[in-house]
Design goal:
Blueprint lengths: L1 E4 L10 H15 L4 E4 L9 H9 L2 E8 L5 E9 L2 E5 H5 L15 H12 L4 E6 L9 H6 L3 E2 L6 H5 L5 E2 L1 H6 L4 E6 L11 H9 L3 H19 L20 H7 L3 E4 H9 L1 H6 L3 E9 L8 H11 L4 E8 L3 H6 L4 E4 H5 L1 H6 L1 H16 L3
Parallel strand pairs: 1-2, 1-11, 5-6, 6-9, 9-10, 11-12, 12-13
Antiparallel strand pairs: 3-4, 4-5, 7-8
Helix pairs in contact: 1-17, 2-11, 8-9
Length: about 375
């Protein structure tokens, strides 16, 4: 039996590559005759650069940028031909701070990384969006690129309160001749019920009242950047504008082309062809929940699997959606580490716990 292992990272506990190896180790211990292929995945969020580097090669470029709360953090970009790939989570990721500070977290470091990519001579810059600690609409990134306003743009949503004017002319000059691609990990818009603040704000520390306030601030930000008419405000309504705390919006407002991060990675590693050569596809992520169906790795892998008429199953740290929603996503079954070994053990020994789960699942799915 041929089995394809194509997981995302498991939050801060396992990289996609580590997760794939743990799955393979557990599966092989139960079904040693199965032929396993490991294809770690990413959707624009954490692991985006590592997965692409493993697949397409290229040169890794190291730089230091401003982190979400003002400290200096290292970023690694991937240069391949005239294209540079940037992982926004490395510059403004939720994992970079021990504390949640949603009102102050800024995307400035992403703009600094883009400028560094421009200096290398890149004519195309692909920015992977996801896993951010920010909900500033990309204002901080615009500030680093040269935008000017009547309030600080790089002080998080708190700094944007009272904003009425943004001048992006210097940004457009700095990026003249450069193609931007926003590789998004979600398909949410910037504002409203399914926007950046409402859907992802709680995990970054925003309370209910904060969400309403930040959404209003971002609404004013859109008007200051784009204008007040519906046609002018269109970048805020494009799917992916809400990615990375609204960083997607800022890039789209600059003329970036939106692209699904999972599709970009899938093409790079040849996922459609790989799926067709296997009998079963195993994917996974830290938390398999309702957000998994909106541009995340699990949903993307399941779509490619369905197109090839192959079964897809999920191994996750936690699974919080029912069988009906799971099947609607194109997933046959989902299995959780916490159900097998408990939450404490899952976090204490994530690789061993995932390996144990894979061994257990192989008893059901392997023909061996």
């Amino acid at each position: 039996m041929r089995v394809l292992m194509a997981p995302d990272s498991f939050g801060d506990t396992l990289t996609a590559a580590e997760a794939a190896r743990a799955m393979a180790e557990g599966w092989s211990s139960r079904s040693p005759d199965d032929e396993l292929t490991l294809r770690p995945m990413a959707d624009g969020g954490p692991g985006f650069v590592d997965v692409l580097h493993e697949s397409v090669g290229g040169t890794l470029l190291a730089s230091n940028v401003t982190g979400p709360l003002g400290d200096t953090v290292p970023v690694t970009m991937l240069s391949s031909d005239d294209t540079v790939y940037i992982e926004s989570a490395q510059a403004c990721g939720l994992h970079l701070s021990d504390e949640l500070a949603p009102w102050d977290a800024s995307s400035r470091g992403v703009g600094e990384a883009i400028l560094e990519a421009v200096r290398t001579g890149a004519t195309t810059i692909v920015i992977g969006l996801g896993g951010s600690a920010t909900t500033d609409g990309g204002a901080g990134a615009l500030a680093a690129l040269g935008a000017r306003a009547d309030v600080p743009l790089d002080a998080g949503p708190a700094g944007l309160d009272g904003l009425s004017r943004v001048d992006t002319s210097a940004v457009r000059k700095a990026l003249d001749g450069v193609e931007l691609i926003a590789a998004t990990d979600v398909d949410s818009q910037l504002l409203g019920m399914f926007g950046a603040a409402r859907v992802f704000g709680p995990q970054k520390g925003l309370g209910e009242a904060d969400i309403i306030h930040v959404d209003r601030i971002l609404d004013d930000f859109v008007e200051a950047v784009c204008g007040s008419s519906p046609s002018q405000r269109r970048p805020a309504d494009i799917k992916g504008a809400g990615a990375a705390g609204g960083l997607g919006f800022a890039l789209l407002a600059l003329g970036a082309s939106p692209e699904s991060g999972i599709d970009l990675v899938a093409r790079a590693i040849g996922l459609p062809q790989e799926v067709g050569r296997h009998d079963l596809v195993v994917t996974g992520e830290g938390a398999f929940d309702h957000s998994s169906g909106h541009g995340k790795v699990v949903h993307g892998v399941a779509e490619y699997t369905a197109a090839a008429a192959r079964p897809c199953i999920v191994l996750a740290g936690q699974a919080s959606i029912g069988s009906r929603e799971t099947r609607a996503m194109g997933v046959e079954s989902a299995y959780a580490m916490v159900d097998l070994v408990g939450e404490q053990e899952s976090f204490r020994e994530p690789a061993a716990s995932l390996s144990a789960l894979a061994r257990r699942v192989a008893r059901t799915w392997s023909r061996d």
